[in-house]
Amino acid sequence: VMKKWFLGVCGCLLVIGLQAQKITKISAVADGYNGKVIDFEFIDNPDNNMQFPYVSGQRMEFEVELQEPALVKINLWLWLIVCPGDEIHADIHYSGKNYRTAEFSGTPSAVALNEAIRDGRNHRIAGRYKTNPLAAVVTQVPADKYYAETQANWKKEQELLEAVRSRVNPFAYEYVYAELEGMYLSNLVKYPYIVSDVAKKHIGDCIPAGYWNVLDGYRVKDSKAALKSFTYKSWLLDYKEYTDKLKARNAGQEWKYVRDLQKSYDGLVAFYDGDVRDAALYILFYNALTSQRDDFDLIAKLSKEYFKKYNKDKTYRKELTEMQK
Asked: Distance between CA 240 and CA 181 in Å, rounded?
């Protein structure tokens, strides 16, 4: 009887597992492009990536199996969020190499969310907002101006997302929201220090009014959807650094960046807990391994401790172990 029960449970779990995978259909038509290929890059699962030769007006289509919503970047610039079982079609318009805009059709919830994301990005492009702070420094955007633009653009995107919230997949909404929050808040807190460094100005002359209060009461997101976003996970390290700078300022001390993996590791272990700590430490090691500027033996020693004590998401462990081979 026990064996039958066990097999029955396994059978049920298998069915649940199979049901969880749903076919998502993606199609697109592009025009006005002068490049050779159109790339569909799945940010969290490169196995699903697709590439098509560019032919103006020719339909590109494919299917993927998804268990949860995924973010796709089409030729880097156009974001597409797709959910299990969605059908989504994009008409993409380029002017040479530059993406101009896109229209969507298909599953209504998918269309609503992707239109909100598109409108937010179009708003950013129209205002010439530099999502890369280094590009803003090069064009000499003053710190207080960039600070104000960052807040205004983030507020606008929040409004666009909020307007469709009730009509879209909650996981997909939270994922996109976290991705954008991670980008905007990271830009907000880093920019004055980048200006100070590049322009060789004293940091005190680069801090905009309100900078030290802008994140009062901020609560870190710990949902599975938010922590799926690589950008949000990266923000966790920037947020910890911001709080360190704030502490130094309140103590009348000057904060200085020191590249010290052991210190960063200990700091994150003490500052965060649970899934958030797991995500932050994953990013710490990911960055250390990709930059190749840290002692490999120390990375190996600390990551071993991380796997044993703090790792919950086994995909982090798998990826970091592959990277250390």
From this structure: 15
78-82 β-sheet, strand order: 50-53, 37-42, 70-74, 78-82
- pLDDT tens digit sequence for 288-316: 999 988 789 999 999 999 999 999 999 99
Predicted model pTM: 0.89
What are 90-109's pLDDT values in tens digits?
Answer: 999 999 999 999 999 999 99
Burial readout 6-27 (b: 16 or more C-beta within 10 A, e: otherwise): eeeeeeeeeeeeeeeeeebbbb
